[in-house]
Q: What sequence folds into this?
């Protein structure tokens, strides 16, 4: 029994480590390529270990690589993304929290249908909405502005934030709400004094989720921003793509890692809260 | 009093100057490396004229993302000043009624004289200039690693038969003959060079410009397709999805001997420190020495809301056609100037030959638009052609006859 | 679930407040999702090419679409990809979650490793995947260099197999997230149930299969919704990895639609394909949503 158990533990760790390799491989390729010289890459050793390490590609990607007629690297785009992502995440999360609260604790006739309608919205291919959205933003005078981009992200983020919050709030016992009612608390007071203080785990989940989605978005960024307000994914795309010029894979990869750094950091630092938040949400699911 | 008058005068001048300075927003996808440097020249020239350049750079593919961005901008009612649009797509945009005429600039600078008619016709919509050409890329080149040819005791091919003889000699010597990138546009690039070599310019015009069904199902087309497919055994099986520049790297590194590609491949050789004529050769694709398939980048001009913006637009057009810009830009990009009578002494031997052939083929009528690069047909038709050719290349069960039938069907897609 | 909408308990404001709070989101969804779907539906009956125009052509665009071989390849690929991606991602995620739940040392590190791909966009990882899967550059070459020259892994360049490479990369990206969802679910299950079953002599796999996983039904629901919408919208993934190739063998509806509407100037065909896509999704998702939501109300 004991031996069998030990064997089982070894197999367990074996599988887990094997999986870790699978997950790490692309990152390995990116990191090693980013510290190679172009000569080494041109010689065809794309996934071998680097023979010598240089960080030139990193400084170039951040500060001097061309992304258009300007050659200032990704630094400017990085801050554009920050300016866009913070309001968009906060607004869509707040709306999701309120929606989830209503849809779980203040149901009314037709509220389930409303939920289903909002939920189905996640399935709309974003390519479909580009042109009508452009027209609408044009009417509002929001075309090619950061505000317009934030608006788009909020609109199409509502479905997932609502889903997360609603499923979490379903798990909060109705008795709590009832008790608060008896104490004379109203809609808002219950939300702020009872529900919201219990929401930290799911708020973490939604913040992380929305941050990742919006930070990584390319399609909306490329279409609804212009010139000096383009987000980092567009900068990365401009840097890495060329129709007829020489490709610098090391700079491309360094740039790719820089573009992904904030989301990686968020996952590494807050990943714990992510699982914890999901756990809290799933308790009574 | 006098001082005041001068100040006032200066102030009015400043205001007048400011009123003439427009914001020129240009959508392009020259975002990296030599291309970006080339585009930066344009910015400098416009700023020297007092305009403000607003960069609208969107890279990706052959401008696919840029076109998406452009469409949404036009729909939202805020078109840029100019956008990188080429070939028949200029007509498509013209039909949508959003392009502006720049005839007065063109007349003043005598563009009709400077540009071959094949080119100027593309730049006009209903007889008016709506676009300005930037450069000329020659597409029908074959890039050769002479060292490998020497090893196999073969020579750089000038005809299709010679090409296959050379390829066979290389294969016998254990050298991969052809570096190939299996992406639809590259498939089409190679195929159009072969079809031109097999069928000649008249067949090319019928099949790819007039979309003539008889030519598309003719024995010449079947032979072109068969010849194209004959290249496959001389490529490696890993070519699918390969970027063109990785295929070029194979020629540079001596892993393969030849590559069909436009003159932008030269940039890769130069970046690797290779010398044209010595470390690598540029020869016209086999059987097409007297023909020239061109890929011309151009900027289309959009209708703008006010006079100042239009002034900026016209200055932009004029700057693009200036000898100064044409030279600097093309030296950076590896292509050649589009306007006639330029001094080519700063260009390398491949560029000089390209410029010479451009003028001679233009006179002989064998200067042909490259369909693989969006110069010959509407985008929908071109896409359908791509589909047929790529499918034929990748599907070994498909016969040349079937592929020709697919091309006939593709020609009907509008 | 008790509902609190008795007029006796509530004042007028409180009856309407919830609706009022929900209204902005509802209206935004109505206009920007359903309104745009309707607009797109209308476009699919017009002669739109480069830009939208409103000349009515009836079903012509649908006829063009159905006659297009490439469209059918895309549909077939969506089913292959969707099925394998959802099934594979789910299986992999559950497996890792169950394994990680066995009081593993270094769980935090492993969990982060499994989760990080979700943080990266395919704009970023596409090139790395392309190299690894390319037989001449990546895995196959590596194994050959080790001396096993009979090893082949050429799916990326094989028209019959290319869609499966998209599945591999897709699972890579999403299974960590599935893992997190299920791990969370597992953590929420009362340990005493498992202990009790163990005392009854049930084996561990049996306990998971018969007791634990069925208890995670809501997690399945959320995961399925998330994976399904990722599958249907997969666009970056395919563009970055295969570009729809070799030829158009790994095309999916999202890339087909994008190519028609934006690259090829066939906006009408693009709109028609988007409508077909939505109809397919609706046919699968709506009944499921209906039964799940009914279920939760009656529970």
A:
């Amino acid at each position: 029994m004991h031996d069998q158990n030990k064997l089982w533990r070894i197999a367990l760790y074996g599988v887990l480590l094997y999986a870790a390799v699978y997950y790490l491989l692309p990152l390995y390729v990116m990191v090693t390529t980013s510290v190679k010289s172009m000569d080494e890459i041109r010689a065809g050793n794309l996934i071998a270990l680097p023979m010598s390490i240089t960080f030139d590609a990193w400084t170039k990607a951040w500060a001097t690589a061309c992304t258009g007629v300007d050659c200032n690297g990704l630094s400017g785009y990085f801050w554009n993304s920050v300016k866009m992502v913070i309001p968009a995440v906060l607004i869509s999360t707040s709306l999701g929290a309120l929606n989830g609260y209503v849809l779980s604790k203040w149901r009314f006739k037709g509220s389930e249908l409303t939920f289903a309608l909002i939920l189905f919205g996640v399935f709309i291919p974003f390519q479909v909405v580009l042109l009508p959205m452009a027209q609408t933003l044009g009417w509002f005078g929001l075309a090619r502005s950061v505000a317009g981009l934030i608006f788009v992200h909020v609109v199409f983020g509502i479905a997932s934030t609502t889903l997360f919050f609603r499923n979490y709030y379903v798990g909060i016992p109705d008795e709590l709400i009832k008790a608060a009612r008896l104490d004379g608390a109203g809609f808002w007071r219950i939300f702020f004094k009872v529900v919201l203080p219990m929401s930290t785990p799911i708020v973490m989940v939604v913040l992380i989720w929305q941050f990742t989605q919006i930070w990584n978005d390319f399609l909306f960024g490329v279409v609804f921003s212009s010139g000096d307000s383009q987000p980092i994914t567009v900068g990365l795309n401009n840097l890495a793509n060329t129709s007829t010029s020489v490709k610098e894979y090391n700079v491309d990869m360094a740039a790719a890692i820089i573009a992904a750094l904030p989301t990686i950091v968020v996952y590494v630092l807050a990943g714990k809260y992510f699982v914890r938040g999901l756990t809290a949400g799933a308790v009574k699911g | 009093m006098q001082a005041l008058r001068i100040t006032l005068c200066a102030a009015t001048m400043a205001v007048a100057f400011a009123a003439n300075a427009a914001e020129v927003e240009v959508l392009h996808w020259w975002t990296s490396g030599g291309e970006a440097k080339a585009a930066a020249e344009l910015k400098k020239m416009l700023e020297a004229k007092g305009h403000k350049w607003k960069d609208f750079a969107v890279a990706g593919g052959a401008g696919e993302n840029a076109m998406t961005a452009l469409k949404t901008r036009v729909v939202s009612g805020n078109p840029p000043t100019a956008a990188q649009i080429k070939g028949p797509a200029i007509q498509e945009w013209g039909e949508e009624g959003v392009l502006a005429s720049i005839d007065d600039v063109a007349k003043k600078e005598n563009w009709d004289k400077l540009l071959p008619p094949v080119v100027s016709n593309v730049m006009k919509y209903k007889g008016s200039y709506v676009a300005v050409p930037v450069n000329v890329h020659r597409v029908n080149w074959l890039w050769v690693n002479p060292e490998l040819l020497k090893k196999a005791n073969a020579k750089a091919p000038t005809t299709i038969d010679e090409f296959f003889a050379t390829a066979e000699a290389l294969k016998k010597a254990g050298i991969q003959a052809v570096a190939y990138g299996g992406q639809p546009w590259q498939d089409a690039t190679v195929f159009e060079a072969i079809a031109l070599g097999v069928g000649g310019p008249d067949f090319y015009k019928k099949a790819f410009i007039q979309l003539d069904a008889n030519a598309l199902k003719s024995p010449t087309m079947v032979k072109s397709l068969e010849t194209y497919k004959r290249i496959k055994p001389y490529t490696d099986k890993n070519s699918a999805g390969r970027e063109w520049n990785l295929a070029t790297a194979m020629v540079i590194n001596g892993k393969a001997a030849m590559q069909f590609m436009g003159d932008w491949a030269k940039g890769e050789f130069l970046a690797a420190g290779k010398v044209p004529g010595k470390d690598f050769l540029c020869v016209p694709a086999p059987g097409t020495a007297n023909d020239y398939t061109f890929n011309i980048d151009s900027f289309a001009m959009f209708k703008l809301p006010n006079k100042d913006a239009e002034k900026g637009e016209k200055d932009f057009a004029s700057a693009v056609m200036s000898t100064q810009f044409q030279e600097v830009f093309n030296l950076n990009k590896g292509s050649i100037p589009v306007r006639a009578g330029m001094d080519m002494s700063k260009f390398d031997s491949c560029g000089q030959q390209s410029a010479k052939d451009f003028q001679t083929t233009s006179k002989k009528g064998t200067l042909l638009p490259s369909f693989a690069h969006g110069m010959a047909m509407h985008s929908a038709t071109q896409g359908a052609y791509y589909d047929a050719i790529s499918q034929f290349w990748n599907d070994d069960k498909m016969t040349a006859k079937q592929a020709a039938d697919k091309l006939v069907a593709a020609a009907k897609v509008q | 679930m008790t509902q609190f909408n008795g007029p006796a308990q509530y004042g007028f404001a409180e009856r309407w407040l919830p609706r009022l709070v929900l209204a902005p989101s509802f209206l935004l969804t109505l206009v920007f999702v359903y309104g745009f779907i309707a607009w797109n539906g209308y476009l699919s009956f017009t002669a739109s090419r480069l830009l939208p125009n409103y000349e009515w052509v009836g079903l012509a665009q649908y006829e063009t679409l159905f006659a297009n071989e490439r469209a059918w390849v895309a549909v077939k690929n969506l089913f292959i990809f969707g099925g394998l991606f959802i099934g594979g991602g789910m299986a992999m995620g559950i497996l890792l979650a169950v394994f990680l739940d066995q009081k593993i040392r270094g769980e935090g590190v492993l969990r982060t490793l499994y989760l990080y791909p979700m943080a990266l966009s395919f704009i970023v990882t596409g090139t790395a995947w392309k190299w690894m899967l390319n037989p001449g550059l990546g895995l196959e070459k590596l194994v050959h260099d080790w001396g096993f020259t009979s090893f082949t892994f050429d799916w990326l360049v094989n028209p019959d197999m290319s869609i499966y490479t998209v599945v591999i990369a897709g699972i890579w990206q999403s299974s960590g997230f599935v893992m997190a969802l299920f791990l969370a679910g597992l953590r929420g299950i009362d340990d005493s149930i498992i202990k009790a079953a163990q005392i009854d002599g049930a084996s561990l796999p049996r306990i998971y299969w018969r007791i634990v996983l069925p208890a995670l039904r809501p997690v399945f629901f959320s995961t399925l919704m998330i994976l399904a919408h990722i599958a249907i919208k997969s666009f970056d993934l395919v563009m970055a990895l295969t570009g729809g190739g070799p030829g158009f063998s790994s095309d999916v509806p999202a890339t087909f639609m994008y190519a028609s509407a934006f690259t090829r100037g066939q906006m009408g065909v693009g709109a028609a394909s988007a409508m077909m896509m939505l109809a397919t999704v609706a046919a699968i998702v709506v009944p499921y949503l209906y039964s799940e939501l009914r279920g939760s109300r009656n529970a």
Remarks:
- The mean pLDDT of chain A is 85.
- Residues 2-54 of chain A form one domain.
